[in-house]
Amino acid sequence: MSKELIRLSNCSMAFDGEVVLNNINLYFNDKEFLTLLGPSGCGKTTTLRIIGGFLKPTSGDIFFDGVRINDVPPHKRMVNTIFQKYALFTHLNVFENIAFGLRLQRPGGKKLSQAEINSRVMEMLEVVSLKGFEKRDVTILSGGQQQRVAIARALVNHPKVLLLDEPLGALDMRLRKDMQNELKRIQQATGITFIYVTHDQEEALAMSDTIVVMESGVIQQIGTPEDIYNEPKNAFVADFIGESNIVDGIMRSDGVVEIFGRKFKCLDSGFDPMEQVDVVIRPEDIDIVDEGQGALTGTVISITFRGVLFDIIVDFRGFKWLIQTTDLSPVGSKIGIKIDPDGIHIMKKGPFSGLYGDYSSYSAEYDEIGDAKHEYEPTHSDDAFE
Hints:
It is a single chain. Helix content is 22%, strand content 33%. It has helices at 44-52, 94-103, 114-127, 143-155, 173-190, 201-207, 225-230, 235-240; strands spanning 4-15, 18-29, 33-37, 59-64, 67-68, 79-82, 161-165, 193-198, 210-215, 218-223, 245-253, 256-259, 262-265, 275-281, 286-289, 296-305, 310-316, 319-325, 334-339, 345-348. The strands form four sheets. The chain has a six-stranded mixed beta sheet, sandwiched between helices. A five-stranded antiparallel beta sheet has the order 13-12-11-14-20. A five-stranded antiparallel beta sheet has the order 15-19-16-17-18, with no helix packed on it. Strand 12 and strand 13 (262-265) form a beta hairpin. Helix 2 (94-103) packs across helix 3 (114-127) and helix 2 runs parallel beside helix 4 (143-155). The radius of gyration is 25 Å and the shape is elongated.
């Protein structure tokens, strides 16, 4: 069982009377890769800065290994931080950048010998795959190499926790993906707790042991990447983590939900009979079939080629569905859609209901969707059971 390392207890933060964190309760386990995920202004960076000691919460407590640390300054916490701007010392080479913190005299601590400094720097160069770069000028390194130097500099002091505030933001897409793998490898190799902040859901899904989804200073959901993606708690989480079609539904009974007047089998239970619910259907879980074989019928109004698959927008009674498929259906064609029970996820209604999931404004390239017309033709059966 993992050991709890950090706990935020009833933490709130306000700036000039504006609440940016609202009574956060959250803990972080030792040797865990945890990601704080959410849009700009959701409170994730504020949470990170409270852990690092750069901000003191308006109310609530921070515990490190069971000890309250609200008043402990950043330099006395066993925490290091990497920001989006790496702030490397341009007048020092790679070795000296990494060794900089080791050369500082610690209050009450002994100065490290040159032999120990050499050993620890070379160890970190090995960890971040920069062995042989120790004499390089940091200004001629690539963005990914500079980030590795920043990581090595942060880890060489053997912190218990590394805080990472959107460190991949300055890198191009290919390098970002490479560094995602590297960060996960480094975290596993060192056993240090990583607390990572990002607004990029792909990064969160790729690297994390645990994801904390935040919005408006409130934690919306905590779970593994699989839990967050497959079992979102509300419409905000479903929309923010990947693409989702979110429609109104009625729970007829356990395992049966009604959408657009059609009954679908699902795997969810525990709802009241006839309860109004939000129904989440991921674009990749929708199968395109012939018009006459579909539980629902719609008209294709837009297609975008994404390399491996197509993004297809389908109009059904004015609601725009996103379908991701390798099967091409031309614009204007009538299609049927089929959804298996395990492709349907039921959520209780909440404050985010009705705000997400209709792809009328999916992107700029779909502006024409608002003018699309589709005459609905009812199918013969009231049920979608097969």
